[in-house]
Amino acid sequence: MAGGVAGLVGGGVAIWQGISARAARRDAEAASAEAAVLAAEANAALHRIAAAQESIATVSRPSAWGVPKSLGGDVWVIRNTSGRPIDLATVEVSPERAQALLEIDGELPRQFPSGDLLEFAARARNGLSIRTFTLVWHFADEPESETHSSVRTLH
């Protein structure tokens, strides 16, 4: 009889442990799911913050160059719309291997008074063409170390 009681007690303990283990597993799964939801929400918030910071940086960036205008064929112009003289250091293109397809009218670096136009040719060869170009410049009354970049596309 003692063995039977011990067996019943042992069986009861085993059942209780099984129930406790299942409850603990359910709690762990619920906590894991909640943690995943919180992580996804935090990640989404981080992306929103990064996008907002990028927008602020874009808005606060000086507006110095207008929209490129085609003069026909490969010839384009872009105007200094800053209201201030600009020292243009370089013009870089994307893709990089298309750099040879860019021909600037005149030498760089060069100063462009407000309202002046930069004229350039953007050629295409064997399916390679300039997609975007980046004007690297600084205001003439600021140190050369305070450079800015203005990225434009050719449409």
Description:
With 155 residues, the chain is α+β, with helices and mostly antiparallel strands. The chain folds into two domains: 1-60; 69-153, Immunoglobulin-like (Sandwich). The protein has one helix and ten strands. The protein is rod-shaped and about 110 Å long. 12% of the residues are buried. The model has no long low-confidence stretch (mean pLDDT 87).
Strand content: 25-35%
Q: What is the straight-line distance between the termini?
A: 95 Å
Biggest sheet layout = 4 strands, antiparallel
Q: What is the CATH architecture term of the largest domain?
A: Sandwich
Question: Which spans of ≥5 residues are poorly predicted at pLDDT below 50?
Answer: none
Read across the widest sheet, the strand sequence of neighbours is: 1-2-6-4
Q: What is the class of the largest domain in the CATH system?
A: Mainly Beta
Report a brief summary of the structure.
With 155 residues, the protein is α+β, with helices and mostly antiparallel strands. The protein is built from 1 helix and 10 strands. A hairpin with an 8-residue loop joins strand 9 (132-139) and strand 10.
